[in-house]
UniProtKB/TrEMBL annotation:
The organism of origin for this protein: Candidatus Galacturonatibacter soehngenii
Name of this protein: MerR family transcriptional regulator
GO terms, molecular function: DNA binding; DNA-binding transcription factor activity
Domain of life of the source: Bacteria
Annotated HTH merR-type domain residues: 13-72
Keywords linked to the UniProt accession: DNA-binding, Repressor, Transcription, Transcription regulation
Pfam families: MerR_1 (PF13411)
Keyword Repressor: yes
Length: 888
């Protein structure tokens, strides 16, 4: 006689061991215990009966009716049960009608096969197995299968009623052994009894059960913190947290109930199932016995870990601005819980800004670029307040590194808050704006002319991100006050604390006399409502284990595609293929670019992709590394959204990110290359990293595919899937090939754009010939018209050397690389370090103004400097071509 262990049977039939024990307890089945075995075993007869019970339960025949069926000596009870069930579903919707027809089929099968006694009931199961695959519904031609029966059962089941509870942290001991982590339930139970540990009563939230990932059944008992655990069983600190709780009878379908609990959160706006990065639950689902109102039926509470869902990323039109309100009224409505006075000597500089504390007890700060900041080393959660007493020195502003001279800003996580922003070298274009990223949602908001400060004297800033008001107070004047922000309706006390970091932009000196950070008081919101969570579609999520910023602007990593490519290669285990590798391979860090007609992007990569049907460029870059890849254009994505979305999900599940260069209706106002690193709600929401953000942000697929790309961007917008490695290529050979083809790159010229010396000459010619003479100040946009090309030459002359040095080390015979290195370094000095003769010094760099481009005398100096860049680039090409001849 062949016996099957209970653990194997639960996997085969997808039924819990607890349900089997319950069936045995009420006399429906019997198990056997073998000598020296701690598990139950079942013979063929009882296995068949279990299958029969499962089929009857799927047809919603109650346990009481099933007991009557097996107690009956003929088929009367079975027929009566079927008839009663048919009558019960006749008034239901279409799904119930389908279920009724299935039951009719079983009755017909009994009559056709002459079933007249309960002993013939196994034929019911055999009929199910043999006939269900081929039965057709004559009315609608739907195939009736076992899977269809399961779907109908789920469809007609009553909606589940859930509550949200916050389980407290507790010390627990489990049935898992310390040395093997295997669960030993019976021995564990004996240990609890012999140690006289107070075992949790039903509903006390002290005794739980759960299943591990490998299917082991584990018991978990709450114990006192002072218990000395000398037992062989594992104890640990259970962290608790939010759980969704639903009640179910043991004889019901526990797996179905558990799935419906998880599915009920798919589109819920308040809560979501709490998954870890690997896609598993934060903690295994817990089961707890509770007191049942039916003494004949055992009942359980099922606990699924959940968390508060952040508001959807979208523009918030509900914000209301408040006028004529006094600072005292705002402060009273948003009281301080704890205030931190930041010692200026204990501030931590980030990325080496110029920062020093003077003898006057003031701190002097020059950031040069936005990435260089000051950490207060104080972390607060929403709501919070920041108070800064500061002075901005007007005379030291140069507009040489950025367009926000004079700004004072701070950061809370990924969110920026700033005043006196969006300023230009041309004062007519300055906005003196208040700018911020809306708390939680992250979309960028700007209010021009509200952030004006007094230069060369001390100002006070109080920025209150409060529970009742969002307010900016400058020099005791309320410049902005708003209510009805989305974050004000969230459970603020559940938000993660973030460090306050001070920042600015540009070369101008800022002075600080005091900085204070305050945690504001908050009122806990109890949003635990019975029955509010009743949705029913499947949910799945995943997040890559590798999460970090794509690029670091502080290191000159200004071409985002190369950071994305490095990100993918890192996940594939390729450590040699970093940002500088790809920046050299694409030509981004070598080629000056210039467009004859319209803005085409930041560097060579964007320019190559700006021509229609030229996506082969990207695929060739990865081919140089030995990898297959596919660039899917926007049109292809739009025509096959679901197919490519499922492909993306498959990539994330394989722990491989997908590169993108298309944003759709992006509510966060962030643009450029990025990588998808995860998904939620089975792909309804995608998680991405871009630029220098340090944790993933979200975009909904509906927003992603909402709008067509801008004219001319159809070819460069799309997704990039990097596939398998087809061959291994020597690293030295990759670098060598790039160097030997570099002269060709620097001579590219098409109808739409040009590279190298021709780019500098075309740029100079447009300025000299008066391209901007008729441009009005309000029409002048310095970035696409001029400073993008300055950024291009500044980045390349400063950041190509890493690639050149590696190429020289790997190919020592290419001695001419040293000359190339010197010429690019020469261009770096020509840009910004040439004793008053450099491009920045003559007003043609990042500090460009429309007046300088329209004034013939001023622009003539700029034109001559650009032509000097062209001559230097020509010399680079000459050395490359001479070196190539010698190397051959």
């Amino acid at each position: 006689m062949e016996l099957v262990k209970i653990t194997e049977l639960t996997n085969q039939l997808d039924i819990s061991s607890r349900t089997l024990r319950y069936y045995e307890q009420i006399g429906l089945i019997q198990s056997e215990r073998l000598q020296f075995e701690k598990y139950r075993f079942y013979d063929a007869y009882n296995i068949e009966r279990i299958k029969q019970i499962l089929i009857l339960r799927k047809m919603q025949i109650s346990i009481k009716e099933i007991i009557k069926i097996y107690e009956s000596k003929d088929m009367t009870a079975l027929v009566n049960s079927f008839v009663a069930r048919i009558e019960a579903i006749e008034n239901e919707i279409e799904a119930l009608s389908e279920l009724k027809q299935v039951i009719h089929r079983f009755m017909d099968a009994m009559l056709e096969n002459g079933i007249k006694h309960i002993s013939a009931l196994p034929l019911l199961y055999e009929t199910m197995e043999k006939q269900m695959e081929s039965i057709k519904d004559e009315d609608n031609s739907k195939e009736i299968s076992y899977e269809r029966l399961l779907a109908l059962t789920e469809q007609v089941s009553a909606p589940i009623d859930l509550n949200i509870v916050d389980l407290p942290p507790m010390r627990v001991i489990t049935s898992q052994l310390k040395d093997t982590l295997e669960s030993e339930v019976e021995g564990f139970w004996e240990y609890l009894l012999t140690r006289k540990i107070l075992i949790g009563t039903p509903g006390s939230r002290c005794l739980f059960e759960y299943q591990t990932e490998n299917g082991s059944h584990v018991m978990m008992q709450r114990v006192d913190y002072d218990l000395v655990n000398e037992s062989p069983y594992v104890d640990y600190e259970f962290v608790g947290g939010l759980f969704a709780v639903g009640s179910v009878y043991v004889d019901d379908d526990l797996a179905l109930f558990h799935n419906k609990m998880i599915q009920s959160f798919d589109d819920n706006s308040n809560y979501e199932v709490d998954y870890r990065q690997d896609g598993l639950l934060r903690h295994e689902t817990l089961a707890e016995s509770v007191i049942s109102i039916d003494s004949q039926r055992e009942k359980l509470n099922i606990y699924v870990p959940v968390k508060r869902r952040l508001p959807r990323a979208k523009h918030d039109d509900g914000i209301k601005q408040i006028f004529h309100i006094e600072p005292s009224e705002i402060e009273k409505a948003n009281p301080i819980l704890k205030e931190y006075k930041i010692p200026l000597t204990e501030i931590t500089p980030i990325y080496h800004p110029d920062y020093k504390v003077l003898e006057t007890n003031e701190a002097e700060f020059v950031c040069w670029i936005t990435a260089r900041r000051l950490s207060t080393n104080v972390s607060v959660r929403l709501p919070f307040r920041v108070d800064i007493e500061f002075k901005v020195d007007k005379e030291s502003e140069r507009f040489g590194y950025g367009s926000d001279e004079g700004s004072i800003r701070f950061y809370h996580g990924n969110h920026m808050y700033g005043i006196n922003m969006e300023n230009k070298a041309d004062a007519r274009l300055s906005k003196e704006a208040i700018c911020f990223d809306q708390p939680l949602l992250g979309n960028h908001v700007m209010y021009p002319y509200l952030g004006k400060i007094n230069y060369n004297e001390y100002n006070t800033l109080s920025w209150i991100v409060g529970e009742k008001h969002f307010a900016i107070i400058i020099n005791e004047e309320v410049r902005y006050c708003g209510v009805n922000f989305s974050y004000m309706n969230a459970d603020l006390y559940l938000q993660k604390p973030e460090t306050i970091v001070i920042g600015s932009d540009g070369q101008g000196k800022k002075y600080f006399r005091s900085i204070k950070v305050s945690q504001l008081k908050t009122t806990p919101k109890r949003i635990i409502k019975r029955g509010e969570l009743t949705m029913a579609t499947k949910q799945s999520n995943n997040l890559l284990p590798v999460i970090h910023r794509v690029i670091t602007p502080h290191y000159g990593e200004n071409y985002w595609f190369n950071g994305c490519a490095k990100y993918v290669m890192e996940c594939l285990g390729e450590t040699d293929y970093d940002y500088h590798f790809f920046a050299g391979l694409t030509g981004d860090s070598f080629a000056q670019v210039y467009s004859y007609d319209h803005f085409r992007g930041d560097g060579a990569t964007d320019y190559f992709l700006s021509e229609r049907n030229d996506t082969n460029f990207i695929e060739e870059i990865f081919a140089m590394c030995g990898y297959a890849s596919t660039f899917v254009t926007w049109n292809q994505l739009h025509n096959n959204k679901e197919m490519y979305l499922q492909t993306l999900i498959a990539y994330i599940d394989k722990k491989i990110p997908v590169i993108f260069n298309y944003w759709g209706n992006n509510p966060r106002d962030k643009w450029g290359w990025g990588v998808f690193v995860g998904y939620k709600d089975y792909g309804k929401t995608l998680l991405y990293m871009t630029s220098d953000i340090e944790k993933p942000e979200e975009i909904e697929c509906d927003d992603l595919f909402a709008n067509a790309p801008m004219p001319g961007q159809e070819a460069c917008n799309g997704w990039i899937f990097v596939g398998e490695k087809r061959k291994s290529i020597e690293l030295s050979e990759i670098y060598r090939k790039r160097i030997l083809t570099l002269s060709n790159l620097l001579k590219i010229k098409t109808r739409g754009y040009c590279f190298g010396a021709e780019a500098f000459n075309a740029w100079a010619a447009d300025i000299e010939q008066g391209k901007y003479d008729h441009v009005k100040p309000e029409e002048f946009d310095d970035w696409p018209m001029h400073t993008i090309y300055v950024c291009n030459l500044a980045t390349n002359s400063s950041c190509c050397h890493e690639f050149l040095e590696r190429a020289r080390k790997l190919n020592p015979d290419l001695e001419f690389i040293n000359d190339i290195h010197e010429l690019y370094d020469r261009m770096r000095h020509m840009w910004n370090e040439e004793n008053g003769k450099d491009l920045e010094a003559i007003g043609g760099g990042f500090n460009i103004t429309l007046e300088a481009l329209q004034n013939k005398k001023k622009r003539s100096r700029i034109v001559e400097k650009l032509r000097e860049f062209a001559r230097t680039t020509d010399r680079i090409v000459e050395i490359l071509e001479e070196g190539i001849k010698e190397s051959n």
